Amino acid sequence: MPTAEPRAGRHAALALAGLALLAGASLFVGAAPLSASALLADGEGARMLMLSRLPRTLACLLTGAAMAIAGLVMQMLARNRFVEPSTVGSAQGAALGLLAVTLVWPAAGLAAKMLAASLASLAGTAAFLAMVRRLPVTQPLLVPLAGLAWGAILGAAATFIAWETDLMQFLEIWLNGEFSGVVQGRYEILWLTGIFAAAAYLLADRFTIAGLGRDAAVGLGLRYERVLLLGLLIVAAVTALTVVTVGMIPFVGLVVPNLVRMGAGDNIRAALPLVALAGAGAVLAADLVGRLVIHPFEVPAATVFGVIGAGVFVWLIVTRRGHGA
């Protein structure tokens, strides 16, 4: 019987191969035609590739990998597999923070917007975890319901403020992610998500222990509150980076970790690279579908993945309800 490590290695190899195929297709699919012969024939094709297609492809990969990892961390902290940043108020909190800084300091730079979005996302996520602690552990399906309700409350507040201040267009961009506007010079901040992904990998064992609950984790010698704070910072920072740069892609952090763990098991450290690869591929595939379904026009990647992810979310709840979260 194959051990977990060789099995994970095979899964990673297959994921890398699939990701390479998707990335190659992404470079040549779009409203404007681009082919390998065009790249060799003149410089216009190469400019399009470097200025638009390559940045867009990289933005999709970085966003998908980061959001999938953030979702896995969120699930460990909440001790529930049916949560992720877009369903527990993290993304809505980031949008509220962006609204606040836009109203108070319209000329704020990217760093100030990032800080405001991160702090607001951190507050929204921490409030959700505080609520979760009051829910009975024997009713795991209450957790995603509470998260959806909390996210709806924050989303309604953001919508009201945006409506009253004529900022609805900005709110739509922040909460409905898409990649058509990604060009060279407008996505590079997403590379920072790699730092938080690396931090999640280094802390994977601690997150696993924290997922046992506070009493068990403290009994095993874990500094539970510190690990919880570090996990919250990772989730909030990744969410803020995504919302500020390309907007939120729903259900990535919920669907991808669940599907990966169904095949790769519950070894979080071993699953993290697979989760990152699968998340990157899933978002890139959604973006490709959005480019092709009504070509030469586009459907936002968030819309495509939202439809698919919602269906998978319901399927996961129905099929796993007898096994807990």
TrEMBL record:
InterPro entries: ABC_BtuC-like (IPR037294), ABC_transptr_permease_BtuC (IPR000522). SUPFAM superfamilies: ABC transporter involved in vitamin B12 uptake, BtuC (SSF81345). It comes from the Bacteria. It holds the Pfam family FecCD. It is a multi-pass membrane protein. Keywords: Cell membrane, Membrane, Transmembrane, Transmembrane helix, Transport. Its main location: membrane. It is found in: Cell membrane. The chain crosses the membrane at residues 56-78, 90-108, 114-132, 141-163, 189-207, 227-256, 268-289, 301-318. Belongs to the binding-protein-dependent transport system permease family. FecCD subfamily. PANTHER family: FERRIC ENTEROBACTIN TRANSPORT SYSTEM PERMEASE PROTEIN, PETROBACTIN IMPORT SYSTEM PERMEASE PROTEIN YCLN. This is Iron chelate uptake ABC transporter family permease subunit.
